[in-house]
């Protein structure tokens, strides 16, 4: 159990920030610091924050992943919580077991989120049941084992910032072929965008060597 002194909400929605700023300081007796994604690192270095709340309705998953990694590396005393967590997209890759305390789907009401935060204050983690089950399911095959060698090569090329045309030239195939490989790889690893694929690869590429 940890004592909450200062929380930070990372969001681009001023409406959400204003709403939470009216409720949470009084409800949980905390100081709420507001930050845009680009300002988070600087503000974290200037003050001690015990909980960082990410609003995933306004932050790209790739950026959320990078910010989560920053907290994991440089602010181990801070914990993270995700609100507006996407239900239809596999975004488990942004959750780190050492720092992430909870996640709330976009459909969760403010009352439900507040109840969840009361549990967090008691030292408990709070995740939707479906998300918790998918996180702890050890019977699911490793995604990297399902990828073909070519799909692995394409994912590796993404990490270097290559465009589809660049990858096609590197592998001596057509650009449409690369798009097909990407589509199939995206389906296998459970992502829906290039940014999510890059974030997934950054976490798993040690398992996806060619």
UniProtKB/TrEMBL annotation:
SUPFAM superfamilies noted in UniProt: C-terminal effector domain of the bipartite response regulators
Domain annotation HTH luxR-type: ranges: 140-205
Keyword Transcription regulation: yes
Keywords, in A-Z order: DNA-binding, Transcription, Transcription regulation
Key word Transcription present: yes
Alphabetized PANTHER family for the sequence: DNA-BINDING TRANSCRIPTIONAL ACTIVATOR DEVR_DOSR
Name of the protein: Response regulator transcription factor
Origin species: Shewanella intestini
